[in-house]
Amino acid sequence: MLSFIPYVGSLFALIAALVVAIVQGWPNWGLFLMALAIVGSGQFLEGYVLGPRLVGNSVGLHPVWLMFALVAFGDLFGFTGLLIAVPVAAVIKVLARHVLGFYLESPFYRGRSGEVLRADAASSSGLETVRQK
After folding, report:
1. Mean pLDDT calculated for residue range 119-126
2. What residue segments make up the domains of the chain, in order of their start?
């Protein structure tokens, strides 16, 4: 249940593992260090490798963009920004894809009558327009 709250679940798991390691391995610190290494590496892999890949694949975002969204929204809006970063990044991606599609089909991009200005069709009297199929 605590893993749904960022940082709290990881911190609770680390503290619980370290307390058990201290109780079980006293006075030897080897078990404490092993627990620290295992929980730390597990949380690192989950937070920075597996999480972005799994969430990014399900949402359709590249892991780099997902991490950028988390960092940016977390910095701008704090804890609330971390909660809304992935859905807002997915919405921005969909909107950008539609806007780009509309732009590529617009007369502004294609020319007023579907003509494209080609530099290789230039003649001595000036540039010619060539109708694109």
Report:
1. 48
2. 1-59, 61-133
